Amino acid sequence: MIGQISRDLRKRILLSVIGLGITGFSVGFFHYSRFGMDPFQVFSHGIWTFFPLSFGTFYAIMNTLMLIIVWLADRRKIGMGTVISIFLLGFVIQFSSSLLAMMIPDPDFFQRLGLLITGIVLMCFGSSLYYNANLGVSNYDAVSIVISEKSKLPFGLCRLTSDLICTFIGFQCGVIIGI
């Protein structure tokens, strides 16, 4: 029984790592397509412009700070996948953005559209692997969940509010808001 649990956990960790890796690549595609990113990435890329750090390093630090806040508010939302995302996602995003810049130095409209569509497909696939691993939610997702549960406000309202705030801050920092 213990060996079975261990094998199951290894499988779930692998799913989480692969899912996060694919998700990170998809964000690189979104970023390089210049059609916009999800609200948290808009926020992250906007705030990052004020720091002399690589994006991967900045992202790890920022998510560690968020992890501490979530940990203090509700430890049950934190799992192994949450911690893995801190140290993997930002560096994969940084790598995929750099790789795309090398491969397609000046993408035209149709190449950018292809990058966007590829990013969407990758995001869906990577997210499904990560969610199915069931090893915790991302720090950003946990914030809305915790606020909703603690305040008794509907989750949709909490998520919409956090998304709008992140998008607004990122936009004010010069990040492209797109489709």
Report what the structure shows.
The chain is mostly helical and 179 residues long. The protein contains seven helices and no strands. Helix 6 crosses helix 7 (155-172). It is globular.
Count every helix, treating DSSP H or I runs of 4 or more residues as helices: 7
Secondary-structure element string: HHHHHHH
Question: In one word, what is the shape?
Answer: globular
The average pLDDT value, as a whole number, equals 92
Main β-sheet description = none
Q: Classify the beta-strand content into a percent band.
A: under 5%
Radius of gyration: 17 Å
**SS-based structural class?**
mainly alpha
> How many strands appear in the DSSP assignment?
0
Low-confidence stretches: none
> Portion of residues in helices?
over 70%
Distance from first to last alpha carbon: 48 Å
